[in-house]
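Input:
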Amino acid sequence: MIVKILLYCAMSILAVANEDIITPIHYIDDNLDTNLLHERLQGSHIKVSIPSIPYHYVSKLINGTLLRIADTPQGWEYMMATGHTKIDELTYDLTLRQGVKFQDGTLFDANSVIKNINAFLKQPFTYTDIHHRLKNVEKIDAYHVRFHLWKPYGMFLNDLAAINLYSNAYLDKFSWQGSATGANTQEAGRYGLGPYILEEGYAVGRKQTPRIKLKANPYYYESTKPYIENITIYTQLTTDEAVKMILINEGLLDISPIPFNKKTEATLSRYAKLLTMPSKNNIMIYFNLMKHKGILKNKEIRIALNKAINQPRLLNFIYKNEGHLAPTESSINYLSIRNATEKLPTYGENISDTEAQYLKSILSGLELNVVTQDRFLFLWKGIEYQLNQFGVHINYSITTSEKDIYELLLTNRKNPKDWDMLTWGNDDWYGNHPWTTFFAYRTSSEWSSIDQDNILQKYIEEFFAYPSDSVAFQEIVNKIVQRTYENAYMLFLPSPNLVLAINKEVFYAPSAVAIMPLWEAKISKNHWSIRQDSYPKERLSPMKPIKVIK
Amino acid sequence: MIQYLRIRYKFFMMAALGVIAIVLMSLLAQNISKDGFKRLQDVFDDSKKVQHIQRDFIAPLFNLREITLALVTAPNNDYRREIKKDLIPLMQKLDASFSFLNDSEINLIWQNYKKLILLTDEYMQLGFEEGAFTNVNNSERKQFYILVSKLEQIQEVQLSNSSSTFKKAENNFYDKEQLIIAGAILVVCLTLIFGFLIARNIVFSIENVQTGLDQFFNLLGRKIDKDEKISISLKSRDEFGEMAKKINTNVEILRNNLKKDLHIIESATNVLDEIKKGNLSSRLKELASSDELNRLQHVMNEMLDNLNERIMLEINERTKQEQLLIQQSKLASMGNMIGNIAHQWRQPLSEVNAILMSIQAQKENNDLDDETFFKGFEECDTILAHMSNTISDFQNFFKPSKSKCKFSLQEACKSASFIIESSLKYNQIHYEMNFVQNSEVFGYPREFSQAILNILSNAKDILLERKIKNPYIKLTLLQGEKYALIKIQDNGGGIQGEIIDSIFEPYFTTKHASRGTGIGLYMSKIIIEANMQGYLNAKNTEEGALFIIKLSLEKEPDKK
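Output:
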């Protein structure tokens, strides 16, 4: 009897104790290795949200280029070319990959290159200077071509990473349609050399469909890739939609950038994991110097606005530490930019009370029209809070689609618009190269909202000439950075990290530059697209976030 | 029973009752205070325990919670390093506190909470901020509130103990309060009953004594018959009883003495009545019961003897003085009269002298004839007859009136004026009389004229003594409906203020001893006021004195 009573007491105590002892949340590791599928299964499918420059990302998935932008020191890697020789400043020889077929099964060789380059020269893209520098290309043999330049062009190889190589059928139908935004496949079809075939929808610079479907290219030169058969890309999801689709539900979205303030939700998600890594993405906030009687023509106000932004606070409270202080709009993660801005403080650091009063006297009562995608609204709320301290009032125009941003930006030069500031998520489309941001300072380009700066234009022209690994390149970068910094041509913000929510059953290694190597992505056998059973319960636990440090 | 006790014992009983009541109440109050103090000490101890939990556990835990939250929200590692400086010492302090608590269950929870905090810190160090944030706001938070809740439960128990102790103390207090009230009522009732009985007994004794004393004092005040029986019927054996007995005995003695004394007093009254009637030889012969009355009787007899003797002496002295005064007055009057006669006679004597000188001269010249001689002789005879009449007039003037009669004030005034007129004229004092109307009054005419003469003589003497220029005396007779008024006014400078009230007193004089007796104005006042029921007053005018005599015109005025 006594034993029974003692036992009962002990059990009672234990019961109470168990209820009162809280165990911490258990975070499972991202241990996909054992479950990853290393071969493409029929029906395998991932869904991706690409809100910024989707035409660029899609292009990199469906098209082949001689070189492919990559997070390498030079910013590219070989793709359809397997090697190159710089004969002299004006001549480059490239060796082509052999045995490669276009998605329609036709052979890729030197002729394909000659035909594409010739078509390109007829209607090139204009966001670099290649249209002024590239003279012609000649066939040396079936798998060797030689490029001739009009004048030295340090960005030549980087530009080659942007010239898509289309099949003959495509060129015959669409030719090469260069523009301010670069070219992309105009319609769904087997026209490219990339790992995926554009099966549905499209995305070109100024227009896109909300949904684009891709299918694995059976002729892709890396025969085992891609590992996932189908990809659906969403180009115009709102931030809330994207967050709900990927964090709360399974099977609606597999990869999506998320706002910095959704990191915790991503960590605790039942279906997604968090991945962060430094990027060379740039958040560009244009000042409209083209606007008729625009207040931002006044350099003093532009500087005052930059000084009103306290980047450390923005970084802490808005970026949630997912970024780095940056004195200019260019990502600090570019080596050349880091060098150029080494001695430049961010404008808003260490503002004295006296200076703050002065800024207030300048900025108080200022009313600014801001255009932004909704995905940057969280950032703007932080900026607005800081600017409000100085009496600045902001009127928003918000859109979910980047094409609306382009419309207002790219027509601004011709027909100046009413916006004062415009936000654009300028991912590193040029591949570890500051031209990604510098091109917006070229006043001859639609991408620029600067009315006139001859000195800067002179620097830009000079910039084209130097290869990115040269001393002269760094010097001219320094000058451009100094010039843009001094004139405060944009609202300078911290350089953002890449913050992605990824389905737990997807292995994906993003690039710091604007390319999504989805052909290398894999799924596990528990992925919704191929899983037969219900999702394993243990996988519902929060997963330790993946922090990529480069 | 009570009536057999002495009053001091009765008061002692009452005082003892009060003291016992106070002692009992004090002991009860002391007991309540001690008990209350102990209860309060218990409440205080429990409160200290509650405070101990709050101070050493809950407050530091909240502090710890705040620090861990700050750790997570800190903007960078610099801040975190600063925050962590407080974290570890605080955890160590709490470790020590929990180990002293001796509660394994709570200690276990605390250890787990500590682990969760360290996990948050670990996450932060790993850069896993989301994990740290989630941990802080999830597991750590839950554990924190469970821990705090457990501690609050302990607090609750201790508070409950405290409350229970307080409740006990409260109930105890109310019980004791009722006891005190009951005790107080009992003591008050007992005190009242005893007090009432004792007081009634004392009051009864006092009332009896008071009644006896009242009767005794009434006897003294003769409000009751001296033969009436006076006795205090008090049978108590206390001080009042003894006092009543003594009073009764003494009252009886006093009543007997009183009877004797009353008899003595009656005899004394009779003696005084005899003395009042003028029989100064009457004396008190009976003896009283009391020595004092006997002494009084003796003193009274001595006093009467003494008084008799002194009266006789005074009468003799007065008689002598009056005789002397009368003699002086007579001499003065005589002097005055002779002076006046001299003034009256001065002219006729000169005339006689002139006739005689004429006759002598004619004789020496031998041209005196008989006719001239006889004529001169007749003239002298006539003059001498006039002089003789004058003497008669003077004699008549100073003769006292035989009885009261109606007389003319004008004639009386003229009569007085006649006596002094010559003297005034001789001394060049202007004298005038104004008689508005002749008035007749009832009285002594000669005495009245003498009074007027006295006033006029005094006026003359003052005018001469002060050597007044253009001296005058005015006599005015006025008559009203009921009174006649005689005013005698001079310009002699008036009577000195300090003596104006004394001039009518006997023997008061401002004159030299050879000239004044001090009896004149006194006599005048007696004549006017005592004999004729009039009024004589004096006052000063701007120039001199004014004497006013007011006499009733009634035939026989009433005596004042």
